[in-house]
Amino acid sequence: MDFVGKLKEASQAVKTNANMQVKEVYQEIDDDAFDKYCGVGITVTDEEIDKVVDGILHSKIGEIKERRYQFKTGPLLQQAREQMRFVDGKIFLHKFDEQMAEILGPKTEADLKPPKKVKQKKEKAKAAKKATENSKEPGPATEADPLDSIPSVLEARELDSAKNSPDLVEKQKVGSGGKIVCRFPPEPNGYLHIGHAKAMFLDFGYAKKNGGDCILRFDDTNPEAEDVEYINAIIEMVEWLGHKPARITFSSDYFKELYELGRECIRRDKAYVCHQTPKEASSYREEKKDSPWRDRPIEESLRLFEDMKKGKFGEGEATLRLKIDMTNANPVMRDPIAYRIKFSPHPRTGNQWCIYPSYDFTHCLVDSLEWVTHSLCTLEFEIRRDSYYWLLEALDMYRPFVWEFSRLTLENTIVSKRKLLKLVKGGHVRGWDDPRLPTLVALRRRGFPPKAVNRFCASIGVSRADSVVGMHSVEWAVRSELDSTVPRAKAVLRPLKVTITNFEEDHTEVLQVPNHPQKESMGKHDQVLSKHVFIDQTDFRMEDEKGYYGLAPEKTAMLRHAYPITVKEVLTDDEGVPEELLVVADTAKSTKPKGVLHWVSAAPFSAPAEVRLYDRLFKSAEVSDDTWLEDLNPESEVSTRATGMTFCSWCKCVRLTTTITRPENRELRAG
Question: N or C terminus: fewer CB in 10 A for the chain?
Fold first, then answer.
């Protein structure tokens, strides 16, 4: 059996992220298209290769003559491979060497010397280090452009139906102004989550990287699930992440045009009105049988479609279906629904319509009407690529380039809006902005900066390969951003009382504490040291040991920004658990202990507060579809009432976002 024959035999499943599997053999593969894609029969001459190499080299001729043989040809070699992908890389390498020699002549002694760039880098690094030391403050970090993680070249499964005529290409250029046009098309049936942040990063980022525009378009064709609340929340989150839509549109803006396009499909014998029930239609699709109404007269379908619009049928009594191919191996191609009847008011159009277009009908047509050049979507829609282009070809409309990328899947959480809605409605969480959720409003409430969310999206990259990302990757991006940008505040999660015995009872001392340990430019704030302070329980042990720098009986440690203290007595409860340490402060600072402890003063420099500590929402890294509710982590939120918490006046907003899980009877004190 030849390779194509083996491919036909092996093509037994089409799998989507909705866990749908279609187990059947594709009956036909276009052998000519397959051979063309694989390069069968393609001949490339030396003259054609020389022409490509010559053109690429002369585009950099000035830089080549300046740097001579120190010029790196690797990126140019990649350009050549992209233009002629069936040419062996070794041939290109030989051609580049050959033509470089013709341009520059033989290598000189200077050409053979090691490049000076390494030395320059070292000198720059030394100068930067010296400047940092002199300023006593870290210099600005050089960050890579986040858009570098977005692919410059996008490749996808080719279809003949995706090809545009020269006339359509010209119309698109006029309509878009010659720009790249992307779109971010959320359905307003819930709050956006971190998976949408990745999609936005790609949609808006690809447009920005190529000097184009990105449209925020609401896919509002399902009135039963949509709400103005969600529309407003989505706009707010897009702005929060720093994205700027070229314009905001709605699929409902095009309801009249879509209705007329539905009529045009009927006139071209590409659609028909069907009266099968959902159960009957599903059964016929599985059996690859035509609907009994598939071949009804065009005029009859036009009249019935008009009757659907006028409300003469009940819900489920009639649909408009596209007439594609009921025997196709791809189930999406088996006469999908274009319009269905729903007697539900729409958030924007009210009761103006009682028929609504389906996603399969709307998505591609509105992309074309808005002159979108790049329609980027997640991989579960790859199976819909065929129907997307079939409809645009049937109506002779402009075909955007469609590229699918992998969804973002995070460990220990879910990003299904249906499941998130169930968590919210079922009272399993406090709301859409519960800090345990992966929704963007929840991340914002938890204190995640938008720049950190975008940094995370850039760090995981964009590809078509499925991957599961740990929450630690998100937290790393957040820590990286917060570490260099936010002022510091102290919090004691497990308070242990410390009494400084050589201080008077009314002793108060105002200390000047840096807002940031490495950035003097962020200024200082006042912190009061009193006779009674609190340290963390983990910073004291009844028995000292090697490598431990906290307190122990008769051991000394430093109160950060204050004085060294030495434990003289330990007061315990009836079970021997330490309740209070009696210490002496070395106000002369005659010792320099290795251990440095953070602390907060007791009342009146404290105030009661409720503290919520968060852990993973689900116990399992990979959450099961069947038992996901049973997998909820009962310790994902631990709430406690602290008796003494201090926030300094300089800190307008402090968010505690630790993932420590602890018993409920422990207190928190902060300052």
Answer: N
Residue 25's pLDDT is what? 38
Distance CA 255, CA 253 (A): 6
Confidence band, pLDDT 50/70/90 cuts, at residue 13:
very low
β-partners of residue 532 are: 499
- Torsion angle in degrees (nearest 10) through CA of 30, 36, 37, 38: 110
* Catalytic choice (24, 187, 475, 509): 187
Q: Is 540 helix (H, G, I), strand (E, B) or coil?
A: strand
Answer for the pair 365, 263: CB distance below 8 angstroms, yes or no.
no
Would residue 198 show up in a list of annotated catalytic residues for this protein? no
pLDDT tens for 617-635 read 999 999 988 899 999 999 9
Q: Shortest CA distance to 338 belongs to which of 359, 317, 318? A: 359
Residue 584's beta-bridge partner residues?
Answer: 566
Active site residue 407: yes
Q: Which residue among the candidates 309, 407, 422, 555 is catalytic per the annotation?
A: 407
How many alpha carbons lie under 13 Å from residue 38 in its C-beta half-sphere? 10
Instruction: Name the catalytic one among 417, 436, 445, 455.
Output: 417
How are beta strands 532-536 and 578-585 bridged, if at all? unpaired
Q: Is the pLDDT of residue 115 over 70?
A: no
Look up the pTM and report it: 0.73
